Each structure stands twice: as C-alpha cells, then as structure tokens.
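// run 5 | inverse folding | seed 20
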C-alpha cells in the first residue's frame, strides 16, 4: 500500500483541521465495509462509530438515504453531474436523525433516562421523537422564536420544551448546564463529538453510492457546522483507511441574513447576533458550535463559503419540488441554492460531479398519545430554570417517566 500521499498521511486525521477533541480510530482498510456487506443505513459503518458490536437498540431506520440524479434539475441548473443526497428521506425528515440516533443508542447502553439538546427546531424534533420511541424523557431548549409547528411536534412526542428569550446561544449554554447539573444525556450538536461521528456517515454513503468514487464537490448548509465538519471528517477517514487519495472540495452555504462563517472565511469582522434575519431557521445560528473546524475544513479542501438570499432559498425549494419531486424547508434547500451561486462565482465548473445535500423538510409527526409534553418561556438563567423544572416535574413528569 502507498503511504504518505498528499498532505496528510494515510492512517491519520489532520489535527490542524479537526483539533484534538474529535474521536479517532485506528484507521485501516478493514474498518470500511466491503461492497458485499448487507447492513444498510448508518449502522453499516459501526466499525467507525464509537459503539461496540452489541445489537443496535435504536429502533427506527437511520441513514442509507438516497442519492438522486434528478434529470430536470440537472438541465435547469446546467449541472449535468449534479446529485442530491436526500437527508429528508429518513425517519424524522431531517439531517438531525443520525446524530440523535447515535447519541440515544449510546445513552440506552449506559442507562440514561433523560436526553437534552438545544435546537433551532429540527434537532429538537428529532430528539423528541427519538426519545419517545425508546422511552426516554426529553428536555429541549429552543430560541423563543422557534417555529411553533416544530414546537408542537416536539410536545406531541412528550418533550418538555423551554423557549429561551435570550436566543439560541443562551439555549445551548443552558441545555449544557442542565445536562451537567441533572446528569442528562447531552445531545448538543458539536459540543458532543458523537454528533459529528453520526453525520460523517453521509460522506461514506456518498462515496459508496458513487460506486466508490469521490465527487469533485460537496455542497452543505452550515448552521452550527457539524453537518459540514462531519462530511469532511468522513472523507478524511476514507482516505485515512486507504480507500481514497484526496478529499472533495467542500462548499459551505449560509444565509445572507446570518453568515458568520462566510464573513470569517472572507476575513470580515463578525456582525452582532441581534442582526440575524433569514427564513432558514435550520441555519439561523449566529455563533456556530464548530465554526472554526468548519472554516478550516473548507479551506483545506480548496472549497469556499457562499451566502444565499431568502429569494434564492425560495427558488431552490421550488426547483426541488417541481424538478425533483422533493419537499424541503428553507435550510433544507440551502445547499442547492448554494450550488447555483457557487457556479455563478466560478467555484464550481459545469462539468464537475457535484453533490448537494437536502437536509430538511416539514415534519408533521403522527399521533403520539399518552405522553403529554410541556412548554415554558424562560429567560435563559439557570436558577430560574431549576425552579421551572421543579414545577414541570411536580405537575407533569411523573405521568411518563419510564
Ligand atoms: C440543522 C440544519 C442544518 C445545519 O446543520 P449544522 O450541522 O447545524 O450545520 C441545515 N439544514 C437543516 C434543515 C437543519 O435542520
């Protein structure tokens, strides 16, 4: 075998991109499933996940999402080798399924009883539904302006939802503080490195679905960053295992009204969080949890960051619906909008193989019953939360703690 091709040796992950906090493995070819392996979905890659060989307990199908070659969309955009990696095809309709499932799987193995996360919406929906499916309680912290339909879906699954007046960053800090204080399973994206382990499996699937070839470019929306950092880690692990010799260029997409990493990548100063405004709630994140790693991963791959307007998001949603029969929400269509913009800016050539992630669509949930959730509007202060939580427990929680 050839070692030391390119900038970082096979068998190793480049610390200068990923830092030292992320999970490492003893990389070798046997960790990648052979083409004959019949396991489907995310657990196919369990040799590169932080779980042992026990039977998987999480009951919903996870990962193994389709890579679509939408002909009408290809000709409309002038990208004849465009592929859509459709993450909305999973059990809970967003790119939050994988991380939720892996954190819950680890929690089930260690006997956790409550899971918490902060969320702009979809991570909360996935966590509420995943927790309900396996009989755990869920405490979800959202910004106060979280989409009411998403809050309703969380509650329908029995989650306790805390809408935090001080916004998403405060919700993130409070969820983490509560996890430490009450010993809850912490699913906070990026902060828990397991979330990145789950999301990297998208890269493995893309490579396998392209018959063990890499695309030239992968386009991903960026909110907190784990989707992009996970992709990059997955491609670097394929290389570390000796499957590939390069990694694709990665293009990160943010909304014009919330583009901290686009600005950082261009060397511009950050804008104050209160100026944030976009219809794409899934990427409305003024202070991304793993922003530094995301910028380093994009730069290392010779990729780029682009920002798209709300109008471009709306057209991308319409293209996905009309040309690819794929429903999406604004953040879910952001990568496609970003692929168009990247073409205009010559970050992508028409002849290249381009994979755009579709990351979310509206999820209405089904009929859960007997697990009444709760909802409270709080400031973001830990002392106040302790008191609210005491009351929630006193009045509701005993009905459905497993
Ligand atoms: C969370 C989310 C994203 C962004 O993912 P990050 O890993 O936070 O960068 C993109 N699209 C949708 C629909 C999301 O819910």
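// decoded
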């Amino acid at each position: 075998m050839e070692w030391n091709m390119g900038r970082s040796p096979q068998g190793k992950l480049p610390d200068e991109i990923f830092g030292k906090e992320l999970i490492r493995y003893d990389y070798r070819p046997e960790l990648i499933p052979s083409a004959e392996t019949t396991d489907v979905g995310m657990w196919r890659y369990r040799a590169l996940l932080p779980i042992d060989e026990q039977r998987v307990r999480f009951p919903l199908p996870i990962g193994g999402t389709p890579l679509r070659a939408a002909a009408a969309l290809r000709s409309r955009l002038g990208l004849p080798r465009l592929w859509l990696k459709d993450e909305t095809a999973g059990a809970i309709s967003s790119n939050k399924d994988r991380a939720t499932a892996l954190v819950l799987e680890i929690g089930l193995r260690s006997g956790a009883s409550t899971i918490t996360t902060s969320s702009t919406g979809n991570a909360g929906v996935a966590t509420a539904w995943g927790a309900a499916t396996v009989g755990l309680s869920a405490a979800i912290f959202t910004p106060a302006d979280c989409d009411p339909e998403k809050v309703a879906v969380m509650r329908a699954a029995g989650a306790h939802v805390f809408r935090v007046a001080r916004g998403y960053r405060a919700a993130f800090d409070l969820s983490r503080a509560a996890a430490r204080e009450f010993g809850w399973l912490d699913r906070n994206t990026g902060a828990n490195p397991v979330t990145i382990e789950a999301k990297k499996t998208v890269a493995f699937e893309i490579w396998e679905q392209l018959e063990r070839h890499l695309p030239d470019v992968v386009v991903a929306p960026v909110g907190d960053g784990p989707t992009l950092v996970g992709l990059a880690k997955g491609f670097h692990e394929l290389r570390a295992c000796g499957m590939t010799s390069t990694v694709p260029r990665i293009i990160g997409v943010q909304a014009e009204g919330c583009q901290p990493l686009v600005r950082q990548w261009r060397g511009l100063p950050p804008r104050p969080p209160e100026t944030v405004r976009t219809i794409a709630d899934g990427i409305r994140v003024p202070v991304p949890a793993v922003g530094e790693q995301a910028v380093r991963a994009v730069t290392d791959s010779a990729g780029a960051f682009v920002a798209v307007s709300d109008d471009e998001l709306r057209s991308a949603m319409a293209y996905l619906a009309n040309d690819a029969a794929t429903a999406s929400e604004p953040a879910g269509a952001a990568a496609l909008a970003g692929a168009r913009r990247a073409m205009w800016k010559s970050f992508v050539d028409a002849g290249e193989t381009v994979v755009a992630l579709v990351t979310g669509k509206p999820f209405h949930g089904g009929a859960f019953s007997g697990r009444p959730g709760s909802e409270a509007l709080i400031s973001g202060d830990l002392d106040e939360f302790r008191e609210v939580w005491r009351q929630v427990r006193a009045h509701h929680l005993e009905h459905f703690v497993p």
